[in-house]
Amino acid sequence: MPWRPASNDSFYRLLVRIGLLLRWSFRIRLITSGEEHLPSAVQQESASRAAVPGSGAVFAITHFGYLDFAAAELLLWKHSRAQLRFLVHQGAADHWLAGPAISATGQVVVGYTDRGHAYDAAVAKLRAGEYLAVFPEAGVSRSFTVRECKTGAVRMAAEAGVPVIPVSVWGAHRILTRGHGFSPRRTWRAPVRVHIGEPLTFPTGVNAGKATAELRARLQDGVERCMSSLPLIPEPRAWWMPAKAGGNAPSEPERQVLDAQDAARDRRRNPR
């Protein structure tokens, strides 16, 4: 019989406390801007934000590292004790360690083949007033610039009648990302910048491709703002800086080739 916590809310708060403890232990500096674009915090008696129909939102988050989600969640928790429900891939849900936590905290799991169920569940959560977090790039960008985005965030928001809030995270990838494992030295007093962009609203029947291109541009603009104000001077040819900024990350054409190779390997592993 699979393990279940006594309360999803209490288990979620436990995970947040662990995140806050790790942040305090390494003195990680979370530097934010654009908080005025977050939904208004409502005073309440409960320990965390209560979902109210009509108050949902899609948080579209950049994806350069494996801890970007934590930066966004800690920011939302501080602002309004809000719980984010993430769209996560079935592969993560199948992991022996992450799987029970994903199930316990009510995340939306996107299956290997049948993705319609996840889409419907996400729209239902948004209509119920929950906050849904999406990585529209659908994978880590090794160029550390915002790569091509999927249209799901825009389509879900338009169907549910809620805004899309762009969230750009910069610096968390220095702590942990693809090809670069965790380093206590890099993590100690690491600055992490988060910029919340102006909410985007889309009508039903919106041109999802065009709207998603706008969202991608907003996310990249937020990244540029974060880069310009990060209180850390990168060393020459730093691996965590994009090529266009003098860093050693793959250029956009190189990143596209690597992504195509990954997609080909995935098709061979999981033939339809």
Give the secondary structure arrangement, pairings included.
Blueprint: H1 8-26, E1 29-33, E2 57-61, H2 68-80, E3 84-89, H3 90-93, H4 98-104, E4 108-110, H5 116-127, E5 131-134, H6 152-160, E6 164-170, H7 184-187, E7 191-196, H8 208-229, H9 252-269
Parallel strand pairs: 1-7, 2-5, 2-6, 3-4, 3-5
Antiparallel strand pairs: 6-7
Helix pairs in contact: 5-6, 6-8
Descriptive report:
The chain is α/β, with parallel strands linked by helices and 272 residues long. The longest helix has 22 residues, at 208-229. It has one domain (8-36, 48-232): 3-Layer(aba) Sandwich (Glycerol-3-phosphate (1)-acyltransferase), CATH 3.40.1130.10. It contains nine helices and seven strands; from the N terminus they run H-E-E-H-E-H-H-E-H-E-H-E-H-E-H-H. The two termini are 31 Å apart. The protein has a seven-stranded mixed β-sheet, with helices on both faces. Helix 5 packs across helix 6 (152-160) and helix 6 packs across helix 8.
Please summarize what this structure is.
The chain is of the alpha/beta class.
